[in-house]
Write a structure and sequence with these properties.
heterodimer; A: 283 residues; alpha/beta; Rossmann fold; Alpha-Beta Plaits; 9-stranded mixed beta sheet; 10 helices; B: alpha/beta; Nucleotidyltransferase, domain 5; 6-stranded mixed beta sheet
């Protein structure tokens, strides 16, 4: 069961939901929690531990100018403008390269070979018995988040229960994290911004064909518009979390709602059961 | 000498386009004879890397000078390596006006 936690708007409580769900489920069975928000991962703040970290690399071309005849075929092939071939010089822009390997294939002189370039890291830790935390982190200045998300997902591809915390928004990193998931929880909040961006996120999961439900977080009790939206779009509201100073306080000191107030574990267990029903996974 | 000016249209009366890689047209004008050629920019709606690609295009058309409003770092590296001088024109006028300004030595080089 692969369950993604997404939202259109940032700051609605994706990580809070993902962390509490994983914390609760890990008491009963092994759970993998994957931080797919690789530009600003933060789940590790809830689960301090000593991870094993390795580099994530992408292959980039290295051109041997002693062999290169400046024929220009690699530059013509590159759709990303990463190679410019001048009459007696060749320029390579690593930040524009998407590691497709095409330049190496089309070079008639075999003057190009590939070498790994680090774009970020992947960390794996066991902060609690039964809980595997996988965190991807993109290096500052590195433009490609998607290959890191691909790598962190691969790390948990055979695990029985995987909870994926996605980046906010609806762009490529979110789509990469959602792809292949059995169900998705969309976390929204009681504001016009929360509702507007929920609409965007709901559109993405529909297009990806992933069944989804909604959590209304920081609810002020006046959620009529959100409830109407959910009804119109066939989205079940799986859980409502009230706007509460106490919850905010627990969260802001890096603690977990389900640890401090164990009565919430029942709510998160029920959330998981509803998610499995959404996904059509056998209970 | 061949001078390339980024333009919003295909004639000398067209306004100068501020952007380089996403300029709709490149006007390649001969500063001695006054003749010119307009090239529609195939990269203007590209997803990325349009600067170096546009630079390659004007190198292939043997321009010796570029006049534009804005230039990214990657495009500048390519043009620098090819020995193409880059001048800034941001007066909001036409290609002819920018060309005259270049001939009168009133344009600054791109930093």
């Amino acid at each position: 069961m692969k369950l993604a936690i997404a939202s259109g708007k940032g700051g609605t409580g994706k990580s809070m939901v993902a962390a509490n769900l994983a914390f609760t489920l890990a008491m009963d069975s092994p759970v993998s929690l994957v931080d797919c928000d690789v530009e600003e991962p933060n789940l590790h703040l809830f689960f301090p531990s000593d991870p094993i970290t390795r580099d994530v690399t992408l292959p980039i071309p290295v051109i041997d100018e002693l062999i290169c005849t400046y024929c220009g075929k690699c530059g013509e092939f590159c759709q990303y403008g990463a190679i410019s071939v001048l009459p007696k010089k060749i320029l390579f822009f690593a930040d524009l390269c998407h590691s497709c390997g095409g330049c190496t294939l089309v070079c008639p002189e075999k003057a190009i070979h590939e070498e790994p370039k680090r774009i970020g890291t992947l960390s794996v830790s066991t902060p609690l018995p039964g809980l595997k935390l996988v965190t991807g982190m993109l290096d500052t200045g590195s433009p490609l988040a998607v290959p890191i998300i691909h790598e962190v997902k691969k790390e948990t591809s055979d695990d029985p229960i995987v909870i994926l915390d996605t980046a906010p928004g609806t762009s490529c990193p979110v789509v990469e994290a959602l792809e292949g998931c059995d169900a998705c929880i969309l976390v929204t909040e009681s504001t016009p911004f929360g509702l507007h961006d929920l609409g965007l996120a709901a559109d993405v999961v529909v297009r990806l064909g992933i069944p989804a439900g909604v959590i209304i977080n920081r609810s002020d009790g006046k959620d009529e518009e959100t409830l109407r939206f959910c009804e119109e779009h066939g989205l079940d509201v799986l859980l409502t979390i009230p706007f509460s100073r106490e919850i905010a306080s627990i969260q802001s000191r890096g603690d977990l709602l389900c640890r401090v107030q164990p009565e919430w574990q029942k709510e998160f267990r029920s959330l998981f059961v509803k998610s499995k029903l959404l996904a059509g996974v056998e209970l | 000498m061949k001078v390339c000016i980024t333009a919003q249209g295909a004639t000398l009366d067209a306004k100068v386009e501020d952007r380089f890689g996403r300029a709709p047209y490149f006007i390649i004008a001969d500063s001695e004879t006054g003749s010119f050629e307009a090239i529609a920019n195939p990269f203007k709606d590209g997803a990325g890397g349009v600067g170096p690609k546009a630079a390659q295009l004007i190198i292939d058309h043997e321009a010796g000078v570029l006049i534009s409003g804005l230039l990214g770092g990657n495009a500048k590296s390519v043009l620098d390596s090819a020995g193409i001088a880059q001048y800034v024109y941001r007066g909001g006028g036409t290609v002819s006006v920018a060309l005259d300004a270049f001939k009168n030595n009133t344009l600054d080089l791109v930093n």
